[in-house]
Design goal:
two-stranded antiparallel ribbon; three-stranded parallel β-sheet; alpha/beta; single chain
């Protein structure tokens, strides 16, 4: 999200991806009051948190990596294209809108568009290991 609340997010993300724990911790502490971030393994809890924090017409939605092939057991299938017109423009009463938190858009589908609140679902394609970040591509049975 590009906003006055996001001024320290880039520093936090860079430190996190560079595995600089102390810098990430300091950046997170600087942004947490104005840019809330929550982490959970429970998708229902994440959706409830987003709905509870969004106010008025603030738009929220479900996002997943375009390589997130193993989220299907959680009813998230990134192979199903979202229609950006319905997803970004329709209201809370439309099941096709981002507000329903049912259809996940990929990083490519939301590129150039903005959400006030994002529920980012994480798959095994990008993992943190004892030696740092590890990238994986799910193919067939491996």
């Amino acid at each position: 999200m590009r906003s006055f609340r996001a001024e320290n997010v880039s520093a936090f993300v860079k430190a996190l991806l560079d595995c600089e724990r102390q810098d990430a911790r300091e950046a997170f502490l600087q942004l947490t009051d104005r840019y809330p971030i929550a982490l959970t393994r429970d998708l229902s809890q994440a959706k409830q948190w987003i709905r509870a924090h969004a106010r008025g017409t603030e738009r929220f939605g479900l996002i997943a990596s375009s390589k997130a092939q193993r989220l299907k057991p959680h009813a998230i299938d990134i192979r199903v294209d979202v229609d950006p017109v319905h997803w970004f423009l329709n209201g809370k009463e439309d099941t096709r809108s981002s507000y329903y938190l049912e259809d996940a858009a990929t990083e490519f589908q939301v590129q150039g568009l903005e959400l006030d609140w994002a529920c980012v679902t994480w798959d095994a394609d990008f993992r943190f290991t004892s030696s740092g970040w590890s990238f994986h591509d799910f193919r067939g049975d491996r």
